[in-house]
Specification:
Elements lengths: L1 E3 L2 E3 L2 E3 L6 E6 L4 E7 L3 H18 L4 H17 L1 H12 L3 H25 L3 E4 L2 E7 L2 E5 L5 H15 L2 E5 L6 H13 L6 E3 L4 H10 L5 E5 L2 H11 L5 E5 L5 E4 L5 H13 L11 E5 L3 H13 L19 H16 L3 E4 L17 E4 L6 H4 L6 E7 L2 H9 L3 E2 L1 E5 L2 H8 L6 E4 L13 E2 L2 E2 L4 H7 L1 E6 L5
Parallel strand pairs: 1-5, 8-9, 8-11, 9-10, 11-12, 13-14, 13-19, 14-17, 16-17, 19-20
Antiparallel strand pairs: 2-3, 4-5, 6-7, 7-23, 12-22, 15-16, 18-21
InterPro entries: Ald_DH/histidinol_DH (IPR016161), Ald_DH_C (IPR016163), Ald_DH_CS_CYS (IPR016160), Ald_DH_N (IPR016162), Aldehyde_DH_dom (IPR015590)
EC number: 1.2.1.3
Protein name: aldehyde dehydrogenase (NAD(+))
Length: 474
């Protein structure tokens, strides 16, 4: 078993204060394959002190110095892309080909987008006789999840470095190894001592210290809404900036003008991608009532064509979910949907018949669901899709917005009609007609899906404070 028993603090790999450890489980085999050190409050304090000390000088670094640093990091990330993908695949279960191209690839894309945005971003400009400055906010505590791990690390670290912030990262203890590799990349790229620090640990210990510490100026959190509330409560006494990207229960509205078969197949594939473990997955699919029977038939065929298997099998479309706890949660909600009277179209409880080991979930679809059912309201975070019917566009919009979440939504239909419908949706992102991911688009949500925006120039704004020097031009 591989062991990773050091933290990256103040430019060096150091021993933890205590000797608590955690095994990392391969979700495809249910067997431990690595061991990490788990940090305590003292480890977090040491990392925060290093970041605070480094901020004094790094905050005054030039635009050109920071841009050069980002470019060096990007070069090394590209060189180690497949290695990063393989690590992510092993620790959280994504198929290896997907982990290399999408999981590792999106981390690279965030650095590319940040470099592009940084070249164009006006860190200083005149407004009349006043000089407007965008200055680094300070020391940032970063708490990131396991489902798209390097995506969420990169989209926080890249803008923090670009703006002159220093940081302490606590990655998910479920999938921590990609963060360790990422720290190696930053060290090789020559990130100055103390600018980037990594401490593994759990939320109640390391996460709580980062959220509440007076020397942390901003906490950037991605995870569940429940955990996000705890982060915000811990941060409140120090009045620090809290940026959160939280849960979702995203609707996918198929308008009457859409190609039903194409839209249904694309919607099923998008929902099940990454084993359904995406906060913006289109998990509520809305179809016209008169097309429900046809939609069910298409959905069933699409679900039955999804190949569930080992992450190392190149033919696998999806792998296992991340952990026993996640598997159990999903199974409970599938059974809940059956108890609630929803029509089980495909899948159901248990593993696929050909798999008896691993946290594999049967791709599951429920139809004739009503929006008051638990499976329509709770974020399942697995390959489970619910289909709801609607009679009018007004009803479709009302159902889509009837959720505490507001991260993403999807609309399929004639272009002009889809654009108009998008304006009715209370979500931070609307994707029309299976459009491709856009790394320059702002990412974040309304309501209980969080606050603030990530990606590209929007991330740069999040990591800066605005200063006005009045009379500068007199």
């Amino acid at each position: 078993m591989d062991t990773y028993l050091k933290f990256y603090i103040d430019g060096a790999w150091v021993d933890p204060v205590a000797d608590e450890r955690k095994t990392v489980i391969d979700p495809a085999t249910e067997q431990p394959f690595a061991e990490i050190a788990m940090g305590c409050a003292a480890d977090a304090e040491r990392a925060i002190a290093a970041a605070r000390h480094a901020f004094t000088t790094f905050s005054l670094s030039t635009h050109e110095e920071r841009l050069s640093l980002l470019e060096r990091i990007l070069t090394i990330l590209k060189r180690r892309k497949d290695e990063m993908g393989d690590v992510i695949s092993r620790e959280m279960g994504a198929p290896r080909h997907m982990a290399r191209e999408e999981q590792a690839g999106i981390g690279i894309a965030h650095f590319e987008q940040t470099i592009r945005a940084m070249r164009e971003f006006a860190f200083e400009y005149m407004q009349g006789t006043t000089r407007i400055l965008h200055e680094p906010i300070g020391v940032v505590g970063m708490i990131t999840p396991w489902n798209w791990p390097i995506n969420q690390i990169a989209c926080k670290v890249a803008p923090a470095l670009a703006t002159g912030c220093t940081m302490v990262l606590k990655p998910s203890e479920e999938a921590p190894l990609n963060a360790i590799l990422f720290a190696e990349v930053l060290h090789e790229a020559g990130v100055p001592k103390g600018v980037f620090n990594l401490v593994n640990g759990d939320g109640p210990t390391v996460g709580a210290v980062l959220s509440g510490h007076p020397d942390i100026d901003m906490v950037s959190f991605t995870g569940s809404t429940r955990a996000g509330i705890s982060v915000a409560q811990a941060a409140a006494p120090t009045v620090k900036r809290v940026h959160q990207e939280l849960g979702g229960k995203s609707p996918n509205i198929i308008l009457r003008s859409a190609d039903l078969a194409a839209a249904m197949r694309a919607g099923v594939d998008k929902c099940f991608a990454n084993s359904g473990q995406s906060c913006n997955a289109p998990t509520r699919l809305l179809v016209p009532q008169e097309k429900m029977k046809q939609a069910i038939g298409i959905a069933r065929q699409a679900a039955e064509s999804v190949r569930v298997g080992s992450p190392v099998n190149p033919d696998s479309d999806i792998g296992p979910v991340v952990s026993q706890a996640q598997f159990d949660k999903i199974q409970g909600l599938i059974r809940k949907g059956m108890e609630e009277g929803a029509e089980l179209v495909a899948g159901g409880p248990g593993r696929p018949a050909h798999l008896n080991v691993g946290y594999y979930v049967r791709p599951t679809i429920f139809a004739r669901v009503t929006n008051d059912m638990a499976i329509a309201r709770e974020e399942i975070f697995g390959p489970v899709l619910v289909i709801l019917g609607y009679d009018s566009d007004d009803e479709a919009a009302a159902i889509a917005n009837d959720t505490p979440y507001g991260l993403a939504s999807y609309v399929q239909g004639e272009a002009g009609e889809a654009r108009a419908f998008a304006r009715r949706l209370r979500t931070g992102i609307v994707r029309l007609n299976s459009s491709a991911w856009d790394g320059a688009a702002p990412f974040g949500g309304y309501k209980q899906s969080g606050n603030g925006r990530e990606y590209s120039k929007f991330g740069l704004h999040e990591f800066t404070e605005i200063k006005a020097i009045v009379g500068f031009g007199d």
